[in-house]
Amino acid sequence: MKSKHLLAGLSAAALAWAYHQRSYRYRDPVRLPPAGAGLLSPADGRVAFVRRTEDGWQLGVALDSLSVRYVYAPQDGTVQALTREDAHLPEQTRPADGLTLTFGNDLGVTLTAPTGRLQARTYFSAGQPVRQGNKLAFLERGERVVLSFGAGFRPVARVGERVTGAQTVVAQRFADIRTG
């Protein structure tokens, strides 16, 4: 009798894992960006770090197993370049495999794979215009997405906060913060 329950439990766990691997992680919810927003989160997950750099800010979003795997455009712009290079994350001693989508106005979205080779499918190439909330890429596995932005913006998201891609405002223009 005990082995029947164990077998039923193992079967249920295997089915749940198979569902997650084959269906759940490929879900594609409709995302409509809020009107008049600042920079939106490029991905679902938790804010892993917010740090000041020489020419602005970096905000890292760590995807978990339940996060939607799409990466979204944080604002309107034109993809200026797609470069594959090592990304340097604050808590790691060795560089991570990374892919950076660069926009104008000191804005960039870097997809990183801290523990291995990055598996990302991109939807835009250099020279193409994007609208805020457009899907930029799909990540096969849970990775880390880093949003880089200039000093004209100030982060409003805090470390540990749960953010939703293309919906949560993570940074606002400095002028909007002072007047609002």
3D architecture notes:
The protein has 180 residues and is an alpha+beta fold. The chain folds into two domains: 1-30; 31-179, Glucose Permease (Domain IIA) (Distorted Sandwich). The protein has helices at residues 2-22, 174-179, and strands at residues 39-40, 45-53, 56-62, 70-72, 77-78, 81-87, 96-103, 107-113, 120-122, 129-130, 135-139, 144-150, 153-155, 162-163, 169-173. The strands form four sheets. It has a seven-stranded antiparallel beta sheet, with no helix packed on it. Strands 1-15-13 form a three-stranded antiparallel beta sheet.
Order of helices and strands: HEEEEEEEEEEEEEEEH
Please give the largest β-sheet.
7 strands, antiparallel
Task: Give the low-confidence spans.
Answer: none
Structural class by SSE content = alpha+beta
Q: How many helix segments?
A: 2
CATH level 3 topology of the largest domain: Glucose Permease (Domain IIA)
The figure for the number of domains is: 2
Mean pLDDT, nearest integer? 81
The strand count comes to: 15
Helix content: 10-25%
CATH class designation of the largest domain = Mainly Beta
CATH hierarchy: architecture of the largest domain: Distorted Sandwich
Strand order of the largest sheet: 6-7-8-12-3-2-14
Strand content: 35-45%
What coarse outline follows from CA principal-axis ratios? Answer: globular
Radius of gyration: 18 Å
Q: What is the terminal-to-terminal distance?
A: 66 Å
